[in-house]
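Notes from hallway chat w/ T.B., transcribed later so I don't forget. T.B. wanted the structure written out for a chain they're using in a teaching module, and asked if we could keep both sequence and structure tokens in one place. Agreed to drop them here.
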Amino acid sequence: MAASLSAAVTSLQSSLDVLDSSIETLESGVSDFPRLSKVLQTTRHFELLPEPTLREAQQALLDEITPSIAHLLSLASDHVEKLSRREQGLRAKCELQEGRLYSNENSEPLNRGQRGAFSDRQKANAPEKAAELRRLIQKKERLKYAVERLELQSKHRERQLRKSMAFQ
């Protein structure tokens, strides 16, 4: 009986050793389980929407923005037209001043040739006419500068309008 008991104890001892080695193997395989579960966990980065929902959202956005865009476009076109009219007015005024300036320059020699008796009076008025001529030339330059500035502003606003339309 002692021999069979000894064989049972030895068999039980070897079973315990196998069980211990299995536990160690299992433990080494499972020790990294928390990290593996974190790595294998799926994270939803993007939410997928059905296409009809997406189209509805796009249409709602378009319906909301369209009136504002139309209003801004009308304001911009009105302002561009106003600047264009102002530019044309300034150009006409400039041309008128140039015409007056050149007509005064061209008419002076004829008057001198026709009226020899008034040459003393004309000589006395020469400094006044020269001063007026300088004043008119300066005015012409100011108007020319104003027209160029308005043209640049108009072009700048048109570019801004195009950029804003490109983003939308």
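Follow-up for T.B.: The two ends are 97 Å apart (CA to CA). Might be a good example for the class.
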